[in-house]
């Protein structure tokens, strides 16, 4: 399974042309998500999850997309999060079904929701900042865990020169207070877009609201 992030012309037929090109290399499209409309230049950013049959080199996916006029591949990698895209609603459904665990569920689901590799809940409400919850593959934070606390609003973060963290692009959002934040990382990119930061902010606020109903 592979994830392609593309810039394509924001006009009817563009996505269909890309799908046709991918079909010519026997790629099976599992899901497509419009990540962002860039109305200022008439383009859109799309994520496409595809599967390849045995014996087909992954590089052919990039070549197929680049063969389409005005299409640019800005990121390409194996996709290990499992499932498909459009994970926001599934995360919300899980949170509403178990309100007391809403924040834990958001931490667990956020890598799949944002096509990332890991997530960690940092808690600075005590005498020192600690990792209260983390998903698999989360790197060690060490003494840099408190550098982003307190946090006022969801935003991208500059990765510190720290083993493991320096390889990731980061985004974070405060939860019940600016002393508890959810940090999400993608190893190697791409950078988190403004629309993704907004989605995370919305989901974080929703998780806090849902938990309050428990």
From TrEMBL:
<dbReference type="InterPro" id="IPR045865">
    <property type="entry name" value="ACT-like_dom_sf"/>
</dbReference>
<feature type="domain" description="ACT">
    <location>
        <begin position="3"/>
        <end position="76"/>
    </location>
</feature>
<dbReference type="InterPro" id="IPR002912">
    <property type="entry name" value="ACT_dom"/>
</dbReference>
<dbReference type="Pfam" id="PF01842">
    <property type="entry name" value="ACT"/>
</dbReference>
<protein>
    <recommendedName>
        <fullName>ACT domain-containing protein</fullName>
    </recommendedName>
</protein>
């Amino acid at each position: 399974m592979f994830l392609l992030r593309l810039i394509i012309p924001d006009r009817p037929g563009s996505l269909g042309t890309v799908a046709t090109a991918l079909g010519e290399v026997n790629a099976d499209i599992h899901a497509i998500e419009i990540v962002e409309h860039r109305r200022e230049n008439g383009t859109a950013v799309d994520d496409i999850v595809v599967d390849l049959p045995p014996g087909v080199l992954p590089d052919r996916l990039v070549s197929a997309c680049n063969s389409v006029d005005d299409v640019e591949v800005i990121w390409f990698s194996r996709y290990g999060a499992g499932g498909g895209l459009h994970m926001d609603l599934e995360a919300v459904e899980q949170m509403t079904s178990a309100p007391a665990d809403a924040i834990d569920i958001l931490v667990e689901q956020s890598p799949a929701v944002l096509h990332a590799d890991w997530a960690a809940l940092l808690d600075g409400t005590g005498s020192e900042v600690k990792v209260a919850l983390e998903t698999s593959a989360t790197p060690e934070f060490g003494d840099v865990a408190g550098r982003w606390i307190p946090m006022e609003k969801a935003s991208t973060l500059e990765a510190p020169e720290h083993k493991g963290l320096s390889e990731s692009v980061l985004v974070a959002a405060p939860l019940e207070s600016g002393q508890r934040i959810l940090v999400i990382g993608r190893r190697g990119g791409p950078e988190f877009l403004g629309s993704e930061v907004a989605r995370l902010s919305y989901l974080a606020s929703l998780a806090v609201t849902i938990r309050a109903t428990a």
